[in-house]
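Supplementary Note 3. Input sequence used for the single-chain structure prediction.
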Amino acid sequence: MRSEVAEVGDVADEVAEVAEVAEVTQVTGITQVAGRPTPLVGYVLKMYPRFSETFVVSEILAREAAGEDIAIFSLRPPVDPRFHPELARITAPVVYIDRPTKTSVLWMQLRSAALDDPDLGAAIARCLPELLAAEVDDAVQAVILARAVLDAGVTHLHAHFASLATTVARLASMLTGVPYSFTAHAKDLFHESVDAAALADKLRDAHHVVTVSDYNDVHLREAYPDETGALHRLYNGLELRRFPYREARPRGGRLRVVAVGRLVEKKGFDLLIDAAALLHLRGIDLDVRIAGGGELADALAERITALALDGVVTLLGPRAQSEVVGILDDADVFVAPCIVGSDGNADGLPTTILEAMAMGVPVVSTDVTGIPEVVRDGETGILCRAGDVTDLVDAIARIADGSVDTVPLARAARHLVEQQFDSVNQAARLRELVRGGAGVAGSGSDAGAGADAGAGIDSPGASPSTSELTGAVA
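The predicted structure, written as discrete structure tokens, is reproduced below.
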């Protein structure tokens, strides 16, 4: 607990007083939820909107298009003035959960919650050990979220990332009886800061858990064999109509290389710059464009200058997803040189790879986590060893000299994306899981290691491929 908050003993006394005022009773059910005519799924997100989390926007859009009612609860206000145009299409209301910093305001929130809803006050007392074990911000926001959930009649909570958002969603679930689920990605599983015991609690208590790759699925089942009975592998989806396929155009002049992502260690863009320097020395004419912003922007710019690559490698800065479509449409090859960072952080399965594949841009990437599940070497793209600049150089050079026929790679890649990464099918599967497909948390489910693999998303009514890819795909 932070020093500005009362000592644990004082906190316990205060919460006990809150519970006494509320006339303690066990929470046996939530009338607002039971009486709601249609389900309402509450998305719990650390920050909404977040420029880099386009997959969340696509998921919510797909669920709304399928007729689901959604509400969004953000634990932090947005800090980036840039927004994707697709946000304007989301109709879900957004509630920003307060984050009191003063002790007096904190207890005012707790007292108000207890007085307005005696059952919630009782739940605060019953869940006191869990609340005291949590960070102060998390515990207080969980109480505020719980009250908002009850007021709105939310029937299910879903969080993205097994970190802050799921911590708060789990506590709010305990306080309200509203079940929760979450999607586990990568940093929330592999970063050195991950609390294994806390993650085990989240896995065990969830109605169901989604993770975005078979690699993650295997990792979680091996690390938490007793807590993964309700785990499902479900790939993130794309709105395919926004990423139209086009056949590779005849290349003339410079090889146009594109990379997209945050400028952070795990993206491996320093390796792409090094590879560009070696290719340039070989006499290969390149135009390398890296779209994205981040903490390494200055370091990468300095690297470009030091290697005399000004005019060869360009940092484009952050770009909206609509702009990325135009950048991809002009590319001869997309490169995602992902690595595992020094802190254990790694990409799960970058959405930008899927976007490039959907548009028919040949992809070069690395064997990090779930990437080989989509970039299948020689079939849907070219796969390199992570951190190996020589591999990157050779892969790009093969595309430059025409020794790789990129047309069948691109067609197969689009077909794979249509079959396994359509957000329409993703939304249908998520809806099934909420409706009971996952069973009771911890009781087991139909998921085994890779159980949702094979044909992709095993939901009824999943749409077939929109094309056999014998020509352009609209």
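The two ends are 55 Å apart (CA to CA). The first strand starts at residue 40 and ends at 47.
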